[in-house]
Each structure stands twice: as structure tokens, then as C-alpha cells.
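Quick one, T. Sequence first:
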Amino acid sequence: MKIVVITGSPHKNGTTDLLADKFIEGAESKGHEIYRFDAAFRNIHPCLGCDACGMSGPCVQKDDIENEAIQKFVEADVIALVTPVYYFAFSAQLKTVIDRFYSRTYDINDKQSVLLAAAASDTPLTLRSIAKHYETLARYMHWTDRGRVRAPGCPTREVISKTAYPEEAFRLGQSL
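C-alpha cells:
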């Protein structure tokens, strides 16, 4: 299976980086092919809403999404969205990539998906909004949800590494 892992954290070696690493480790242990796109460290630009793509490409922006990643998204069987939770939502970096799905909406439909998210706050409200957003995106894109790891109360890598969440991410990768 081809799995695309799209990360959205601007923190190298942070909480969601650990979740992504463990998820990838689990998926690779089952022989899956992984492509990782770390959005925060790439040359990416937001959708302009110009509709030149007509939802079937190409995008007028010639950044790392269009020049490298979009074809990987199209070819993927599974798309893993990995993000810290900032103000109850995906990070801006990950949201930028998601918005650019528009240029190939029909080609990125009918996939499987997973969500890995970590938040400093441990209140139930913190992860509720991101779960709903993910569910809405998955429904719109006709994706089949294969699982989620939501890690509240994990403000740092040190904290999350002492929880069961990294192991959950590993098992989720193995389950595909």
C-alpha cells in the first residue's frame, strides 16, 4: 500500500513528529511504501481560489505541493494527516496543504485516511473541533477513516513520549 504522511508542525522533533515517526515505523513493518511531506519545512503557498485548475489540475502555483507532492497524493491509498492542535484546528501549514487538494479534488477522492493530532490542553473541547473537521473532510473526499490517535495534554515531546500515544500511532500504522 502507498501511504502519504502529511505533517503540519513547525516544531522539529515535537509531539506530532514522534507520532508520525511511530506511525511510519508501524506501517513500514508491514511493508507499506511511505512518502512523508513535512509541510512546515517546504516551499508551499495557499490556494488562491482562482479556479484555474478546475478541480482537476494543474495548479498555477509551482511550489513543492504542485511540483512534487500532489502526484504522491493522487497515487496514495492512504493519506495520514498529522498535526498539532492550534486554536482547535489543524495547523496553518497542514491546512494550506489540505486547501490545495482542491486542484485535484476528484483524483484525491476515495482514499483511506488517518488522523494523528496532539494538543497541549487536555480539555475535551480541544480535540472535539479537529475531530469534526477531519470527519467533514473525510466525508467530502469520500475517504474511509482507518483510525485516529488524539493526544490531549501533551505539550512537549518529553510528555508525549511517556504516554501510550506513540504506541497507539505505531499500532495504527501496523493495522493498515
